[in-house]
Design goal:
By secondary structure, the protein is α+β, with helices and mostly antiparallel strands. It has an 8-stranded antiparallel beta sheet. A two-stranded antiparallel sheet has the order 1-2. Strands 3-4 form a two-stranded antiparallel ribbon. A hairpin with a 2-residue loop joins strand 3 and strand 4. Helix 7 runs parallel beside helix 9, helix 10 packs antiparallel against helix 11 and helix 30 packs parallel to helix 32. It is globular and about 80 Å long.
């Protein structure tokens, strides 16, 4: 290595002298290029040219890699004539044309939606909203205006009708506008039909415009992920093509395309091709933090350990917290036991909360009890800080999220140990949070039952005041369903049975659990597999609350069907369908259909056919799918279109915001943050949000869900995650990515949005193309990060066409 270092020192002296003769911009580019220190060279790192001023770092570690020792001459640090060529080429790219970047032609983007005639946009959006694919929309795919063709292609994808594939495939192959072709690929992915795979495969094999290739590989990943198991065999060449795209990009010596890599990595996540780990791990060494983070995310979700050696280094050295957080996720899910001490260190000391909570979870995945002491000490420190702070400040501090994560993991690491220190700490946290109850029940089952069924038990002095609109106790008792001690198990089961009693069956002494707690009680009781579960669930099918009815039907689907349960489901569905006409949630109707379908009986299929006349489009759609799965016939012609809530004036109002600034200031009990809404991407979703805000719908609503390093979620008037505004809106899936601060519409299935929305703490590429992005937080992300479950939205103020005033 001595000669290598000497060469570097000599070249460094020449380099410094040479750069003095350059202008400022060129000197900066040259210096960026030269950032190759002795340590990196000695560890056999190479630098590959990517884009002007951006470079790729990759470690040579595999003899089978195309960059082997025999090609070492091509891997040496560049000579200065190479630097000059790079600078001249970079400058030339910038000077000659704004449509050229480093030798790669950018596709000329089609005009924005604002440039499309209003009458045409109205036709397109009405068809989208009605989920109507017809000759009118098909004609627009051949319009002379590229912007119209592109927008019509997006509409075809959103509608999701398989018949549109025949029109989108030739658009992908032959359209003269690359932006139109890219959107055709995106739309084929949204339709998720295997019939569109061949067109996408052909596009990938031709390796034409990168933007189109990026959308093609993304789309192919969606199609593979949506395939039923019976059709898995045909996906093999598609999986190979997806992995081939990444292999090609990883092996390029100049200008690999970022978008192709990013969407390719997510396609691998969805398609799960064989040997994906080795290829994915090659991107962990890239200079672009977003690529490193996305590669780690893919490895985490596929539970692949191919990059663990590199990830350990990234965890300690990488400046990007998202990369570090994803690194600990991989080490956790792959159960890298040797990384325990490193994960403990990050759980306690990392400066970014997202990394700390991810490290805490990773330690839970390792299942190594030796990590428990350090986590418990951290939990005790945080709880002490909570107690000191609580009398002075009414709001829950951000570290409550960390306390709950630690409680959850201690429940896994110390299960069945009756650890006194851990139970004492958990006892102090109170009974409001499900995480604490579950952990206590796991660590000390008998003590948990004693204390939660004894009304005389002493209450904690300063419990966590974490709001949960369900039953945290029921979730704790559910953990005892498989407990070996009959007495402990029996007492928990009895407590649950008392909570779901009915006066007409159990007598006037019955004290029934609160409505929003009943679903948790029912699920917990069913986990005990009691003899009377069929009778109990049948009784709940007539409850006044739609979520209780839905939960009972879902649980009946997992119980061996009986003649009584079949009759009960038949009667319940006949009563449920008319409720849909009165803006009732469709959860119960769909759950009843699925329970009936599981019976695989002719009589049950006949009952399902009743739902073909339902007023709710999603209920009809589900009934058609279930009947087809059961071999009871193809009733696709009965789907029809959606009965629209919007009138022409509503569409015109929504479309009138395109191209104009629309912002929402969300004032919470923790402070305010500002959302830039995206009417160009999702006009009807934005209009729905603006309308609800204008009515004061969000005022006083709890932020009912907080998952650190993932999302905060709000907009549910019930507060338990099951509520909505009394109607549903269609998804407006678009190309906007779920980056940090993205605002998306929460769903329980396609086209089930309403009033619930979420904000991402960090990039979530697996959500791209599955949920509507309709905004992004432009200021106040520190407020979003500080939110704890139970914090409250005080108001949402909409400002259109003008900047928000700054408030002190």
């Amino acid at each position: 290595m001595a000669s290598e270092s000497t060469e570097i020192e000599t070249q460094s002296y020449s380099f410094k002298s040479w750069t003095l003769s350059l202008d400022t911009a060129s000197r900066e580019r040259a210096i960026n290029f030269r950032k190759l220190d002795t340590d990196r060279v000695s560890r056999r790192y190479i630098v590959l040219n990517r884009l002007p001023g951006e470079f790729v770092r990759q470690q040579r570690s595999d003899a089978s890699d195309p960059m082997t020792a025999k090609n070492l001459s091509t891997l040496q640090p560049p000579h200065w004539n190479s630097v000059i060529r790079l600078i001249l080429r970079s400058s030339l790219c910038l000077v000659i044309s704004s449509t050229i970047v480093c030798g790669q032609a950018k596709p000329k983007p089609a005009k924005s939606s604002a440039a499309i005639p209003a009458t045409t946009m109205l036709r397109i959006v009405q068809a989208e909203d009605q989920r109507r694919w017809d000759s009118d929309l098909e004609t627009l795919l051949a319009d002379k205006d590229a912007a119209i063709r592109r927008r019509a292609a997006l509409a075809a994808g959103r509608i999701g009708d398989e018949r549109a594939v025949a029109s989108l495939a030739p658009l992908l192959e032959k359209d003269s506008d690359d932006a139109v072709r890219a959107m055709a690929a995106f739309a084929l992915g949204e339709i998720e039909s295997a019939k569109g795979a061949d067109a996408l495969l052909a596009e990938l094999q031709q390796r034409r415009e990168p933007a189109v290739r990026a959308r093609a590989v993304e789309a192919l990943g969606k199609i593979v992920a949506a395939l039923p198991k019976s059709e898995e065999a045909q996906a093999q060449p598609w999986r190979a093509a997806i992995l081939g795209v990444l292999e090609f990009e990883a092996g390029r010596r100049s200008a690999p395309d970022e978008e192709v890599i990013l969407l390719g990595l997510t396609a691998v996540l969805r398609a799960r091709p064989e040997n994906a780990g080795k290829v994915t791990a090659r991107f962990l060494g890239y200079s672009n933090a977003r690529i490193r983070a996305t590669a780690a995310n893919t490895l985490a979700r596929l539970k692949l350990n191919d990059g663990n050696h590199e990830l350990r280094k990234l965890l300690t050295d990488d400046p990007d917290p998202v990369v570090r957080a994803n690194a600990v996720r991989v080490l956790g899910v792959t159960e890298e036991k040797s990384a325990r001490d490193l994960l403990v260190d990050r759980a306690l000391k990392d400066t970014d909360g997202r990394v700390r909570v991810s490290a805490i979870r990773a330690l839970g995945s390792l299942k190594d009890p030796q990590a428990a002491d350090a986590l418990l000490r951290r939990g005790q420190e945080l709880y002490t800080a909570y107690r000191l702070r609580r009398p002075k400040y009414p709001n829950q501090p951000i570290f409550v999220n960390e306390i709950l994560e630690i409680a959850n993991v201690l429940g896994r690491l110390l299960a069945g140990t009756n650890d006194e220190k851990a139970t004492d700490w958990l006892r102090q946290l109170g009974r409001a949070a499900p995480e604490v109850n579950i952990a206590f029940a796991r660590v000390a089952p008998a003590a948990y039952v004693d204390e939660t069924t004894d009304s005389a038990a002493d209450p904690p002095v300063a419990p966590l005041d974490v709001v949960y609109r369900g039953s945290a106790l029921a979730q704790g008792w559910a953990e005892l369903a498989s407990h070996p001690q009959a007495l402990t198990k029996g007492r928990a089961g009895l407590a649950l049975r008392q909570g779901i009693c009915t006066p007409e069956v159990d007598g006037p002494e019955c004290v029934r659990a609160e409505k929003k707690a009943l679903p948790d009680f029912l699920r917990a009781y069913a986990a005990f597999k009691p003899n009377d579960i069929d009778a109990v669930l049948r009784k709940q099918l007539s409850d006044s609350d739609v979520i209780v009815r839905a939960t009972a039907a879902e649980l009946l689907a997992d119980v061996k069907p009986t003649e009584k349960s079949s009759r009960a489901l038949d009667a319940a569905l006949r009563l449920e369908l008319p409720r849909l006409d009165k803006a009732e949630l469709n959860d119960a109707a769909i759950a009843m259909l699925e329970a009936l379908a599981k019976e695989k009986q002719a009589a049950a299929n006949e009952t399902i056919k009743i739902a073909l006349n339902a007023s709710d489009y999603l209920v009809r759609k589900r009934a058609i799918a279930l009947l087809k799965e059961n071999g009871a016939g193809d009733f696709s012609s009965r789907l029809g279109t959606i009965k629209l809530r919007n009138q022409t004036v509503d569409y015109q109002r929504a479309l009138g915001r395109i191209g104009k600034p629309v912002r929402a200031k969300v004032n919470t009990s923790k402070g305010s943050f500002v959302i830039e809404l995206l009417p160009d991407e999702a006009p009807l979703t934005v209009d729905n949000f603006v309308t609800l805000a204008g009515k004061g719908f969000f005022k006083g609503i709890l932020i009912h869900r907080v998952v650190p390093n993932f999302v905060i979620q709000a907009g549910d008037p019930r507060g338990d995650g099951n509520g909505g505004p009394g109607y549903q809106i269609r998804c407006e899936i678009n190309e906007a990515p779920f980056e940090r601060g993205a605002v998306g519409m929460a769903l329980s299935g396609k086209d089930t949005g309403g009033s619930q929305w979420f904000v991402t703490h960090s990039p979530q590429p697996h959500l791209d193309g599955g949920y509507t992005v309709f905004g992004r937080v432009t200021s106040g992300m520190e407020v979003v990060d500080s939110i704890v479950r139970g914090d409250v939205i005080r108001s949402v103020t909409i400002v259109e066409g003008a900047p928000l005033r700054r408030h002190k």
